[in-house]
Design goal:
The protein is globular and about 50 Å long. By secondary structure, it is mainly alpha-helical.
Length: 422
Amino acid sequence: MTVRPFRSLSVRNFRLFASGQVLSVCGTWMMVVAQDWLVLELTDDSASALGVVTALQFTPSLLLTLIGGRLADRYDKRLLLTVANLVSGALALALAALVLTGGVALWHIQLFALALGVVNAVEIPTRLAFVSEIVGPDLLPNASALSAAYFNVARVAGPALAGVLIAAFDTGPVMVINAVSYLATVVGLRRMRPEELHRVARSATGARVRDGLRYVVARGDLVLPLVLVAAVGLCAMNFQLTLPLLAKTVFHADAAMFGLLTAAFAAGSLAAALATTGRRSRPAAGLVNGSAFGFGLVMLVTGWAPNFAAAAAGLFATGFGAIFFSQAANHRIQLGSDPAFRGRLMAVYSTILMGTTPLGSLLVGLLAELADARAGMWFGGAAAMVAAAAVHAAGRRTRHRGAAEAPALSAGSPVVPSAQAP
C-alpha cells in the first residue's frame, strides 16, 4: 500500500488551517525565546524567576482547560479559535509596547504569561478537537501528525530566527512580529468553507464537564495513557525552562546559540512528527509505553552532554522522543473516544499534559537552583522511564486479571451462542 504522508493537505480547509498555523506558531516560538531571554536578563539569570513565569503561563491550563473543552463541545470551534487568536495577538502587542518603550518590568511579563495561559486554556483543546472536524475520522491520524510536523517546522525556524533578531535588534521587535503572526491563523480560519466541516450534532442538554470526566473514568484504556501523560508532563516536559538554563548556565551561550539548541530540539520533534504521518489506526498501549521509556532514556543521557555539539545532538534525539510519545498517546486517546466527547477528552489530555507543567517547572527550577541545569534533565528522564515501566506493569496486571475472570464467569453460567447474543 502506498503511504501518502501529506494526504490531509488534499482537504482545502486543512490547507488553510495549516498554512495559518505555521506562521502563527513560528511567531509564538520566537516569542518564547524572547520572553525567556528577557526574564533572564531582568533577573540576572535566575532559574526560579523563569520557573515562576513558566508556572504562571501554564497554571490556567490546570484550572480552566476542562471548561475550555466544554466550550469546544458546545459552541462553534472556528469562532472560538478566531476570538482566542485575536485576544492573544492583542496581549502580545501590549507587552511588545512595554518592551519597546523601556518600561517593562518582571511583573508585566508575569501578568502577560498568566493572561495568555487563560486564553490557551480555551484555544488548545478547541484546536485539538477542531482538527477532526476539518478532516474527519479517517484522516485524523495523518492530520494530527502533520499538525505536529508544521508545529515543529515553526519550532525550528522560530527560535533560530529569534536568536538572530534578538542579537541584532533586542527582544522588542521579535514580540511585535509574534503579535502580527496571530492574524495568519485568523485569516485561515475565516476563509474556510463551513459546509465542508465534519461537525457532530451537539447534545440538547449541553456539554457538561462532569459527563466528560465520567466517560474517561469508565474507560480503562484511556485512563492508563492519561496517567502516563501526567507523569511525563510533570517531570520531563519542562523544556521551556531547561533549555535556556542549559544554554546560559552550563554552556554560557549567547542568544543565537540558545536559538540553535532550541532548533536542534525542534528538528528532532519534526522528524518524529513526519515519522508518524503514515499511521492509520489506533496505536497499541505497548507503543505508547515504550516510546515514553525511550524518551526518558535519551533525555537522561543528554543531561551528561560534555559540550555544546553533544548537547545539540542529544536534544535532537530528545525532541524526537518527546513528540513520538506525545503523538502515540494523543492518537490512542483520540481514536479510542466518542466524537461527541472529543473536546472534553482533549481538554483532559491537554490539562494533564500542560497543566502539570506549572508544578514541574517550580520543581525543576528549584532543583536547577540547588544543583544545576543538568539535574533537571536527569530527573525528568529517570522519572519518565519509571512511569513508563509502572504503567506498562499496571496494564499487564489489568489484562491478566480480565483474562482470569472470563473463564471463571463462563464456568459457572451457560454460554450464550454468539448468534443469540444481544
